[in-house]
Amino acid sequence: MKEGKSRLSTAFWLVGLGGVLITVAIIALYTPWLPIFDLREVGVSGNRETSALDVARAANLRGGSGLMSVSLSSTARRVSTLPWVKSARVHRVFPHGVTIEITERQPVARVELSGGKCALLGEGGVVVALSCTGRETVPLLKGATLAAAEPGARLASDAAAALMDALHGTAIPSVTVREVSLTEKGQSAELVTTTGSLIRLGALSGAADKVRYLVALCRTVKAEQYGIIDLRLGGEATLVPR
What we know:
The protein is an alpha/beta fold. It has helices spanning 2-30, 52-59, 72-79, 158-168, 207-218, and strands at 41-45, 85-93, 97-104, 107-112, 118-122, 126-129, 140-142, 177-183, 188-193, 198-203, 226-233, 236-241.
């Protein structure tokens, strides 16, 4: 009989303890003034082109607010609106901190603007800056249209953005692209290499896929020996010697 009472008392004690812990958690979550887990520090990592101050401002976190009330996903989305930011991850660091890890876009193209100005494009065709100073090795993209000449705007053509991303993310043997031209009112793409070779990719809609064909071709031939490399016929290539 006594053993039964002991077990019953233990059960009531555990239930009571659970209720206390839940109550403390609720108070910490919904009582901003409680300094147990309040937000006091915001750390930023992974940024080179974007200042930590800009990241903190975009995060829009209120000091002193409950740490558990911070929405990690919403904070990451706000930070990801910054032009240079490709992605962001947000973590709580108890008892008083939040860390924001960002991955920045890599520059993939330069677009000349009127008045001698230049827009620098990052991955995804996003304008990351309105200055190309020190970025002369980034390929020049001609014939492209921007949705707007301002940071955060994008290339009007998704296919053009995909092509520039493909060129940036692919090592083409013995080939360095100096210029990309969108011809036929932006419907066709041509590459100019640093050695002066002209590479015709054909329709812009499939140009990003042609980069794979170009890589395979350049593993078997020396591209610099040819003045024109024509890939407009799909899997077949027409080579014109210099």
